[in-house]
Amino acid sequence: MSRQTLQAAIAHHQAGRLEEAKAIYRAIVAEDRNNPDAIHLLALVLHQTGDDAQAIPLFNRAMMLAPATPAYPANFAELWRKQGIWPNAIECYRKVLRLAPSDWKIHHLLAEALTKLGKFEEAEAEFRRVIQARPRDPNAWSGLAEALRRGGKVNESVDAARQGVAINPNHVDCLLALGWGLIRQGKPAEGLLALDHALRIHPGEAKLVWYRAWGRLLMGDYERGWPDYEARWHDPELRQSFRRPFSQPQWRGEDIRGKTVLIHAEQGLGDTLQFARYAPLLADRGAKVVLEAQAELVSLLRRSMPQVEVIQTGQPLPAFDLHVSMLSLPLAFGTTLQTVPATVPYLTVDPYAIERWRAKLAGLSGLKVGVVWAGRRTHLNDRNRSVRLERLAPLAQVPGVTFLSLQMGDAADQMRELPAGMHLIDMRSELTDFDASAGLVSALDLVISVDTAIVHLCGALARPVWAMIQFDPDFRWMLAREDSPWYPTVRLLRQPTFGDWDTVAHRAAEELGKLTAM
Predict the structure, then answer these.
(1) How far apart are CA 410 and CA 400, in angstroms?
(2) Per-residue pLDDT for the chain (518 aa), expressed as one digit of tens each?
(3) 194, 195, 279, 328: which could join 178 in a potential S-S bond, CB 3.0 to 4.6 Å?
């Protein structure tokens, strides 16, 4: 077919008449299977009409036929970006840059993809290349701020965001990065000023409201924080992580007598342990309550809440009238800092299990202290909340203590090289689920743990636990306090600065020494 025919197809394509363009591209490719432009454009229009399965081999063929054309891998990268397949997108961006090394838009997109993939140092380097070429680009400064913050460089992130705001005081992404960074710095009041400014420019923007929720909850402003926290249902990225596709309406606190309501797990195991406390309270209001929870928690929750029907996540659900997610319960109950339902224990351990554990541990001398130094690696904040076992070496110097590892997962392998003087009993084989863990912690004198589910388990069982908390904590731990309104038996040992686990470890050792001396 003639060049004019291809141009006619392109005109349809540019005018948004995608089906007409697609038909002509197909005809051209049928006649000339080695026409890279037509093959690439057919791949592009197939992607734009939602047929990625057919588009992918055509993009690959176009790049094979014309490897020196940067537009082909650039458009192919867009397909992978929209699918969230970041390694493939990065590979395509790198192909473009080998052909067009000064394409700063592609450098920026590559940096964003590296951030999404968790390669924060590489992303930082890419953003800095863009800024060196385009120092007045606030988009590059906001991207750099995000990569720095997610890479644990919060102070540098705030500096980058300030640079972007200085260039454009109304740049929403820079204001968001600045507000969120200030909140992570422990300056929520300042952070909220930046977020409120951004919200005046884009009223109701869900991600801005979500970050404002964190700032307000950190400050203990539950009256305004919990309503803001509902913004997670309205931001596409957040909604994809949290929302369940129920046709029934969400329960928002109205009269529930005679109705069946489903409470469903939304985030991690610790969240379920913390907010399951509301299920019996909902039953007390006259509702039939179905609680859907992760498999590891089902046995423990069934024993603890006989008035609630507990279903394992993924199993068929009974009929219900309304649903509510775990982290929407505080809002539905109108929870304020003064009305947190903190009566503990609200979980129940098999008493025979406690006796069995006490018998097993009877031969151990001194205080019996459980230790957990890392959470699940899949947690988005794990690099900041977890610590390597070697950093807890000061605990080994405390006499009169027997340490038991409650650590699960890959981090437990760190016990192969224990800190000098530390004797640690590995309990992994005994901890088959949280029911087993509940029995063990109920027989211990104390648990020392980073911010992971075991803290919530101990708190819900009214067992003494010291939580080692990162400088920029989860909102539930608030700021500058050593206790928790959610758990009377939890003591918070906080980092004084970002990443300073050494001070935390020495503080824990000092306080533990006081206990052994009593």
Answers:
(1) 29
(2) 556 788 988 999 999 999 999 999 999 999 888 999 999 999 999 999 999 999 999 999 999 999 999 999 999 999 999 999 999 999 999 999 999 999 999 999 999 999 999 999 999 999 999 999 999 999 999 999 999 999 989 999 999 999 999 999 999 999 999 999 999 999 999 999 999 999 999 999 999 999 999 999 999 999 999 999 999 988 877 666 666 779 999 999 999 999 999 999 988 899 999 999 999 999 999 999 999 999 999 999 999 999 999 999 999 999 999 999 999 999 999 999 999 999 999 999 998 889 999 999 998 989 999 999 998 776 666 678 899 999 999 999 999 999 999 999 899 999 998 888 888 999 998 888 899 999 999 999 999 999 999 999 999 999 999 999 999 999 999 999 999 999 999 999 999 999 999 999 999 999 999 998 87
(3) 194
Amino acid in position 237: E
Residue 8: CB atoms within 10 A of its CB come to 15
First-to-last CA distance in the chain? 92
H helices present in 52-167, as ranges: 52-65, 71-83, 86-99, 104-116, 120-133, 138-150, 154-167
Who's near 305: CB < 8 A, 6+ residues apart?
A: 276, 279, 280, 291
How far is the C-alpha of 428 from the C-alpha of 405, rounded, in Å?
8
Q: Report DSSP state, residue 416.
A: G
Domains (ranges, CATH) in the chain? Answer: 3-221 (1.25.40.10), 260-332 (3.40.50), 351-517 (3.40.50.2000)
Single-letter residue type at 502: D
Distance CA 370, CA 449 (A): 8
Q: Report which residue type is found at 496.
A: P
Count the Cβ atoms, other than its own, within 10 Å of residue 428: 13
Q: Cα separation of 39 and 219, whole Å?
A: 57
Compute the distance between CA of residue 241 and CA of residue 21 in angstroms, rounded to an integer: 36
* Bridge partner list, 494: 469
Give φ, ψ of 448 to 5 degrees: -115, 120
Enter the tokens of residue 494.
Answer: 């906080």
CA dist 100 → 74, 77, 461, 485 (Å): 11, 15, 60, 57
Vertex 121: Cα angle to 115 and 127 (nearest 5) = 65
For residues 216 and 228, the answer to whether their CB atoms sit within 8 Å is yes
| Long-range contacts of 361-367, Cβ-Cβ distance < 8 Å, separation of 24 or more | 361/404, 361/443, 361/444, 364/402, 364/425, 365/400, 365/402, 366/399, 366/400, 366/401, 366/402, 366/516, 367/400, 367/401, 367/402, 367/445, 367/446, 367/512, 367/515, 367/516
Long-range Cβ contacts of 133-142 (<8 Å, 24+ apart): 133/102, 133/104, 134/104, 136/167, 137/167, 138/164, 138/165, 138/167, 138/168, 138/171, 138/173, 138/174, 139/108, 139/171, 139/173, 140/108, 141/167, 141/174, 142/171, 142/173, 142/174, 142/176, 142/177
